[in-house]
Design brief:
Layout (H helix, E strand, L loop, with lengths): L8 E5 L3 H9 L5 E3 L2 H6 L5 H14 L3 E5 L5 H12 L5 E6 L2 H12 L4 E6 L2 H10 L3 E4 L1 H6 L4 H15 L4 E4 L5 H10 L3 E4 L1 H6 L4 H17 L2
Parallel strand pairs: 1-2, 1-8, 2-3, 3-4, 4-5, 5-6, 6-7, 7-8
This protein binds erythose-4-phosphate (E4P).
The site of erythose-4-phosphate has 11 residues, from α7.
Length: about 220
């Protein structure tokens, strides 16, 4: 029994504008997730630059863009989240799975501000974030695999729980590392995957496709020469 009753959305997990543009040009992009590490990787530092970068991303993609708060206390998360949400209608405030984060998610939910609860590594955390009214929860599949837990099994378990309970919170499979993670996420009922561009593009590949296309083109050339 799985949660998903809609077509799984594709988000890209990067703050790199060129990669966001490439994925968007492919015509399959539904949104973007970022985090402080991804912003730092692009050399985006300082509040003004960070806020501008979120607007730049929103101007490329017509879909939800997760922008993460840096504060870890309730008041700080509220102040930061309200500022982020005011940037653009597609901004989703990304909140860490901590005690004050749950309180902040509840607050934002009551104000109609959408949230993505990040750093989810257990079904208990997923239930708590959903109960608080998170729009999305982000279970980190790859980081669980890294420590010998089955990340995909967590997606299946949360999917089953959300179906049984009727939670409206969407399961956003995060920390995706390879195309199998994407395929299994679809199989297990994730509502969304967020992935590096490389894993999305890896879905294209099959040696028999390459071999078959080469044969078709060779046969066409022979017949027309
Ligand atoms: C989620 O939104 C995070 O940005 C992300 O998926 C983390 O993935 P990583 O484990 O590859 O850093």
């Amino acid at each position: 029994m799985y949660a998903n009753l809609t077509v799984m959305k594709f988000f890209i997990d990067t703050a790199n504008l060129a990669q966001i543009t490439e994925a968007n040009d492919l015509g399959i992009l539904d949104g973007v997730t970022t985090n402080p590490s991804l912003m730092a990787k692009e050399g985006i530092a300082g509040e003004a630059a960070v806020l501008k970068h979120y607007i730049d991303i929103c101007n490329i993609v017509d879909g939800d863009v997760s922008a993460e708060v840096i504060s870890t206390d309730y008041e700080g998360m509220i102040a930061e989240g309200e500022k982020l949400a005011a940037l653009h209608q597609n901004i989703v405030v990304k909140i860490p799975m901590i005690k004050d984060g749950i309180k902040a998610i509840k607050y934002f939910s009551s104000k109609g501000i959408r949230t993505n609860c990040t750093l989810i590594f257990s079904s208990g955390q997923a239930i708590l974030a959903a109960k608080a009214g998170a729009t999305y929860i982000s279970p980190f599949v790859g980081r669980l695999d890294d420590i010998s837990y089955d990340g995909m099994q967590l997606i299946a378990e949360i999917s089953q729980i959300f179906t049984v309970q009727g939670y409206q919170t969407q399961i956003l499979a995060a920390s995706i590392r390879n195309p199998i993670h994407i395929i299994k996420s679809a199989q297990y009922g994730a509502h969304v995957i967020t992935s590096p561009l490389s894993a999305i593009l890896a879905l294209l590949n099959h040696p028999l496709t390459d071999k078959g296309l080469a044969q078709f083109l060779a046969d066409h050339k022979k017949a027309n020469s």
